[in-house]
Structure to design on (524 residues):
């Protein structure tokens, strides 16, 4: 037979809560390597945050489809190089990459457009002066991009088509007048169907190149290759898809003794002379590369080029020492908040305050386990905004206890009930308020999470998660513990529960209601 409304069997509820805790910590210790620590964000453990601003040749806003495609490619690059705990999110027209730990240098390279094209070298000149820096902001100016296209990609720079390409009448003068720049406005924005005046990555040679005859999208695989006996430098080894293999074979067969330029984001990476026909599609990109540079280049070529070009508008690096200090400050703030709640509850509610302390401690127990598991399952990282969400959640959880305890007082004061009989009635009334309050808090957190990005999402997520866990603790721990205390002669003593004043007031009110009835009987 089920108990009356509000009356429960506390042992069952507490047993179910213990089962939840056992399952959670079994997952913590026996899955995912068994390391019982949550993942921390860059502001707590140190790391790098890079903001990439999208740009288009005409200065118009990039399409949402292009931004989403770029974000997906960057995420693929992240997975390919094994950077763990990295977050890639859209923030307006920006892409924000967050990399916890010491792998920030790799994050700064993830926004490379990686538009690779193979162009025929029509003419080349050695550069004797160092590259010049453009005026501030000019490199990102749409007008500068259009001007560069007009002068450096003029159709009359070359004549002929295919294997008969040759320099135009004004090409030599244009190449001589062209100067290399440290920040190329055409980077990632050159037209593959037009010729191109550009420089190599070191700024020591400038080129007149024909249109792209083979796109980087035809690359099937790219790997970093170490120096060998007949190859003193690090290289990137390429293999082509079937169509690209045929195009490359035809070009190398028809252009033995000529140079082919491997152009990455408008810069010439390598421009080797074709010694013989390459029929199997196995090709090397060589240059003055380090091991890290060849690995980075191979990775970005392997996972595809971005549909947009990006500039790094902001790169923030937080040292591990500063992150540790931030974590310590967050823990101190949380500890102070808990201590104040504990003192208030113990002074005002006495035994009920002790039950509050126990409930909060058990709430922290399951919150920690959930944090560890979410870090493993969905790569959730705890940052300062998340810590702030947990600190606010302490107040949300304590508020549920206060609502319950005040309902108990109302039942005793207004209804003249004992502590034991007030618990089930007070719980029925408090339960509705607690559910409504937590529902509103969870809904607000969900809306904030849906419309926000970055740190604000972390705050909303932890606040919403804590709100859900608050309900578990209140329903499975706090209410059963209060019900058990109300059934104990010792624990239900007014001096222990802090309800003595309310019970005295209730008794006085009952006496006051009886006095007029007695006085009327004497007069009659």
């Amino acid at each position: 037979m089920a108990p009356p409304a509000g009356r429960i069997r506390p042992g069952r509820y507490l047993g179910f809560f213990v089962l939840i805790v056992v399952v959670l910590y079994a997952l913590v210790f026996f899955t995912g390597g068994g390391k019982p620590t949550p993942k921390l964000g860059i502001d707590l453990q140190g790391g790098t945050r890079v903001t990439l601003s999208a740009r288009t040749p005409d200065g118009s806003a990039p399409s949402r489809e292009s931004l989403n495609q770029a974000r997906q490619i960057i995420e693929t690059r992240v997975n390919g190089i094994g950077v763990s705990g990295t977050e890639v999110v859209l923030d307006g027209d920006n892409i924000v990459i967050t990399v916890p730990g010491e792998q920030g240098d790799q994050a700064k390279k993830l926004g490379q457009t990686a538009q690779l094209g193979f162009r025929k070298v029509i003419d080349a000149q050695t550069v004797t002066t160092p590259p010049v820096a453009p005026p501030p902001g000019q490199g990102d100016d749409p007008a500068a991009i259009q001007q560069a296209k007009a002068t450096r990609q003029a159709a009359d720079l070359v004549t002929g088509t295919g294997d008969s390409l040759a320099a135009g009448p004004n090409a030599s003068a244009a190449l001589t007048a062209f100067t290399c720049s440290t920040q190329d406005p055409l980077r990632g924005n050159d037209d593959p169907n037009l010729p191109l005046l550009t420089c190599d990555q070191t700024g020591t040679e400038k080129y007149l190149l024909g249109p792209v005859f083979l796109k980087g999208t035809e690359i099937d695989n790219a790997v970093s290759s170490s120096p060998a006996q007949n190859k003193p430098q690090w290289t990137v080894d390429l293999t082509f898809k079937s169509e690209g293999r045929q195009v490359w074979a035809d070009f190398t067969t028809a252009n033995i003794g000529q140079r082919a330029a491997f152009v990455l984001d408008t810069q010439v990476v390598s421009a080797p002379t074709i010694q013989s026909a390459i029929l199997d599609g196995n090709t090397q990109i060589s240059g003055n590369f380090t091991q890290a540079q060849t690995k980075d280049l191979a990775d970005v070529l392997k996972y595809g080029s971005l549909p947009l070009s990006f500039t790094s508008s902001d790169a923030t690096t937080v040292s591990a020492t500063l992150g540790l200090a931030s974590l310590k400050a967050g823990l101190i703030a949380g500890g102070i908040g808990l201590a104040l709640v504990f003192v208030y509850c113990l002074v005002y509610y006495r035994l009920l305050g002790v039950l509050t302390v126990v409930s909060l401690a058990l709430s922290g127990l399951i919150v920690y386990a959930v944090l560890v598991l979410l870090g493993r399952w969905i790569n959730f990282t705890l940052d300062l905004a998340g810590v702030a969400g947990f600190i606010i959640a302490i107040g949300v959880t304590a508020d549920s206890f206060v609502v319950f305890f005040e309902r108990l007082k109302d039942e005793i004061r207004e209804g003249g009930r004992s502590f034991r009989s007030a618990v089930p009635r007070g719980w029925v009334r408090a339960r509705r308020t607690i559910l409504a309050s937590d529902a509103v808090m969870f809904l607000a957190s969900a809306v904030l999470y849906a419309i926000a990005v970055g740190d604000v999402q972390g705050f909303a997520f932890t606040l919403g998660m804590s709100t859900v866990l608050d309900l578990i603790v209140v329903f499975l721990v706090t209410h059963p513990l209060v019900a058990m205390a109300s059934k104990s002669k010792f624990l239900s003593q007014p001096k222990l529960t802090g309800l003595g004043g309310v019970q005295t007031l209730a008794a006085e009110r009952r006496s006051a209601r009886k006095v007029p009835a007695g006085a009327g009987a004497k007069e009659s």
Summary: The longest helix spans residues 419-451. The chain has 15 helices and 16 strands.
